[in-house]
């Protein structure tokens, strides 16, 4: 009843998390491990000045350590890294690839590992080495499956595949991709944002703009969705041309690197990847900014009662286009 519905999930725990008399009762303590999508509901009714709240964010070191422990446990201590039993992969070793495409989710990291072994068994069940072919096939299949889980509306996935870029402006989409008015494109992008498919990066001056006005640059938010937009690209080519990791906050940065209307700025912490900043105080500032931005993403998540608005808006756009 609550597995895929944040509103219903919160309704179940709401009487407990806002009952200060119960939660502050001497001699007893409560600890709730809550789905991050409950955050917008939580913030509206819970006294965070009296109820301590922490957010768990899996960084690279934590995930790779978890990955190592899982491998050790299920190999009776014989294997601590897939690199030890896999062919060399480019441009990252296989353990790093599982981290990148897990997108900070420990569950997805395990799912990718399971898919890799499933593909290897299908290719050659007697092999003592995990092949590069099995790894790349597994990542392609996982991205395909995960995209349909992240984005519920098929028409959004179809639209994104037409874009042929991982970062873009409204004018680019309106003039070059969908051949429509900018207002129609804005309405279309409202649906994309409702599906958490895109994120705002910064303001740029478009290279072809005669007025030299600054406009908003948007980018694909999830690397699995970005890979699904380019099924013809092999994993190495995709990563080399579309992906970087922010050295300050570990965000996956998806850009059309080298294109004139792209950006080298991290959408989460606003760090410029061409910068050489190493100051400890600056590093703390960037991490703090990334934390605030990720909280903002949750606050902007469309609540279940709002979905009808975007469904009807999407239908209207399709009718206008037809």
Task: Summarize this entry quickly.
This protein is mainly α and 322 residues long. 52% of the residues lie in helices and 7% in strands. The protein has three domains: 6-45, no CATH class; 60-150, no CATH class; 154-321, no CATH class.
Explain what the structure shows.
- With 322 residues, the chain is mostly helical.
- The protein has 3 domains: 6-45, no CATH class; 60-150, no CATH class; 154-321, no CATH class.
- It has helices at residues 6-17, 20-23, 39-45, 60-74, 94-102, 106-123, 132-150, 154-163, 170-177, 182-194, 223-229, 235-242, 280-300, 307-321; strands at 167-168, 198-205, 214-220, 243-245, 252-254.
- The strands form 2 sheets. A 3-stranded antiparallel sheet has the order 1-3-2. The protein has a two-stranded antiparallel ribbon with strand order 4-5.
- Strand 4 (243-245) and strand 5 form a beta hairpin.
- Helix 10 runs antiparallel to helix 14.
- The model is unreliable at 302-322 (pLDDT under 50).
Separation, N- and C-terminal Cα atoms = 37 Å
Question: For the report, how would you describe the main beta sheet?
Answer: 3 strands, antiparallel
Number of strands: 5
Strand order within the widest beta sheet: 1-3-2
Structural class: mainly alpha
Please mark out the parts with pLDDT under 50 across 5 or more consecutive residues, or reply none: 302-322
Discrete helix count:
14
Element-level helix/strand string: HHHHHHHHEHHEEHHEEHH
Gross geometry: globular
Mean pLDDT: 89
**Overall helicity:** 40-55%
Number of separate structural domains = 3
Radius of gyration over C-alpha positions, nearest whole angstrom: 22 Å
The share of residues in extended strands comes to 5-15%
């Amino acid at each position: 009843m609550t597995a895929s519905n944040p509103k219903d999930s919160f309704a179940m725990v709401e009487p407990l998390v806002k009952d200060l008399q119960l939660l502050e009762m001497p001699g007893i303590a409560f600890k709730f491990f809550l789905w991050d999508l409950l955050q917008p509901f939580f913030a509206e009714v819970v006294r965070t000045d009296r109820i301590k709240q922490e957010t768990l964010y899996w960084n690279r070191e934590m995930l790779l350590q978890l990955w190592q422990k899982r491998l050790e446990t299920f190999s009776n201590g014989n294997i601590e890294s897939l690199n030890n039993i896999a062919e060399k992969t480019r441009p990252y070793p296989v353990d790093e690839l599982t981290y990148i495409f897990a997108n900070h989710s420990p569950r997805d990291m395990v799912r990718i590992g399971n898919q890799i072994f499933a593909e290897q068994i299908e290719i050659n069940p007697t092999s003592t080495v995990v092949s590069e072919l099995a790894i790349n096939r597994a990542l392609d299949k996982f991205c395909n499956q995960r995209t349909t889980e992240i984005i519920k509306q098929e028409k959004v996935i179809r639209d994104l595949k037409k874009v042929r870029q991982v970062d873009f402006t409204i004018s680019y989409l309106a003039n070059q991709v969908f051949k429509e008015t900018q207002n129609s494109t804005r309405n279309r992008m409202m649906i994309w944002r409702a599906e958490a498919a895109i994120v705002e990066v910064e303001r740029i001056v478009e290279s072809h703009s005669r007025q030299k006005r600054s406009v908003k640059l948007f980018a694909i938010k999830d690397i699995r969705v970005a890979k699904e937009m380019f099924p013809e690209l092999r994993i190495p080519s995709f990563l080399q041309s579309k992906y970087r990791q922010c050295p300050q906050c570990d965000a996956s940065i998806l850009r059309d690197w080298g294109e004139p209307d792209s950006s080298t700025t991290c959408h989460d912490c606003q760090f410029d990847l061409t910068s050489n900043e190493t100051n400890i105080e600056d590093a703390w500032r960037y991490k703090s900014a990334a934390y605030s931005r990720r909280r903002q993403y949750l606050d902007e998540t469309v609540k279940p009662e709002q979905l009808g608005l975007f469904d009807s808006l999407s239908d209207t756009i399709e009718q206008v286009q037809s």
